[in-house]
Write a structure and sequence with these properties.
The structure is a homodimer of 259-residue chains. Chain A is α+β, with helices and mostly antiparallel strands. The first copy, chain A, contains ten helices and eight strands. The structure holds a DNA duplex (30 and 30 nucleotides).
Amino acid sequence: MSQSLDRALTLVAELATGPKTLDELSRVVEVHKSTALRLLRTLESHRFVQREGVHHYRLGTAMFDLANRALEERDVRRSAERALRAFNARTGYTVHLASYEDGEVIYIDKYDSTHPMRMYSRIGRRAPLHCTAVAKVLLADLPDTELRRVVDGMEFPPLTANTITDAESYLAELERVRAAGYAVDNSEHEDFIHCVAAPIRGARGEVVAAVSTSVPKVLLDFDGLLALLPDLQATARAASVECGWTDAQPGRTPARGQD
Amino acid sequence: MSQSLDRALTLVAELATGPKTLDELSRVVEVHKSTALRLLRTLESHRFVQREGVHHYRLGTAMFDLANRALEERDVRRSAERALRAFNARTGYTVHLASYEDGEVIYIDKYDSTHPMRMYSRIGRRAPLHCTAVAKVLLADLPDTELRRVVDGMEFPPLTANTITDAESYLAELERVRAAGYAVDNSEHEDFIHCVAAPIRGARGEVVAAVSTSVPKVLLDFDGLLALLPDLQATARAASVECGWTDAQPGRTPARGQD
DNA sequence: AATAGGCGTTGCACTGCTTGCAACGGGAGG
DNA sequence: CCTCCCGTTGCAAGCAGTGCAACGCCTATT
């Protein structure tokens, strides 16, 4: 639609494969050197490309800045919607989406079992930290210093017979969650409800949200609840992909031994 | 220089702060809606932006693709050059840059203490894995499976009295390196030389190279060598930034408690 | 159910931005 | 000192990009 923009974007894509000279680039888009030069200059002024030496251009830092900022900005709720809705349609059970923010766990989406509609009014509601599966998943990913700070400020009011009522047990529970990759609420919040939750990860592997399903005990016993786990984790993985997650282990090069 | 491209790039930068509608975007660059629409369509055809719902645009996956590909393409040697040259000028000691590739550690750059010239002829030379600081730094970051494979194939010829001569001690040494964030070669390779090395990290926190400084024992005793560590680590950090590294801890959200 | 408003979309004519050309300049190599 | 190779600049012409106004779809309102 826009010729010059189209050419410029082609140049950027070309530069992603490695540094190139002006000549090489002008040949790629089949324009005169001077034309390519002007496009590159504009790209350069926005830090999309930068010069390398005098004869080469390469991608600039704006690409990394923008890509990272955009990843953080990506609306988890929207990204996860498709996967969560599908799980909800498949199983018929209630689905919650929650995220951690400043010491609190907040529900940011919900799909009800009977009416699969978004309850906008509930968005922003805080989840109890000590007795919900989503909170366990989210807190389990916090750095130790921040986790300690949060736990120090927590209270452990017993809500059911199963509620965890002290920090030490809670930290041990988070260890289990970390190792298992999922969390449960075994009727720790309400007597007649139990839940499982799994983490949704972003591009750097960090946990950006948690998805849970809540089932009345009259519909499913605890084993039946756990049987939902594979499907829930697949759902979480699908949502993770939408959030920019890729399989690569952050901080370590992917093992090449199993190719 | 190129008006339409300039506007398009401004739009992209704007979208990095979050999804926007056509109106908002056209107001940002002060053009008619239809003009913005055409720019966005071109950007969309290159997957630089994508629609979110019907009323919003957000950055597309090409940004992430390109940014990641470019990061891998970035020449570590070139990126690290400035920082390494500065360290070399400051201290006067020999500086090595090395990277890991397929079970081997390879010197990819060197700044000599007397003649700060690039020894192109030495590029590609392999470093012994069991007795060099750079190898320790690079192997310490490998995934366990690959590390085991590499160590299984290693030999431990004693070169000095200090050389590590068995796999078990070597793995223990790597644990120390991992914990400390740096490695030493305490005259394990040559009797009269000792070295310290630090990791250079890329955008995802992965170790892309190692920088070391080698000092004759007649010039500096072991404590004197360790005194170089802060400067060397600052150098490694500067080089890391050039390689796209940002402070964020991968896999964990950055602690906000200390702001 | 009908209406109004908001927003994205399209076709068209005009303007001015983009383009290619040719000449210039600086650095490298002989 | 000359030559070659690039990147760079000024200019004129043409066409691509732009703004306008009208259209259509969807949502909200009464």
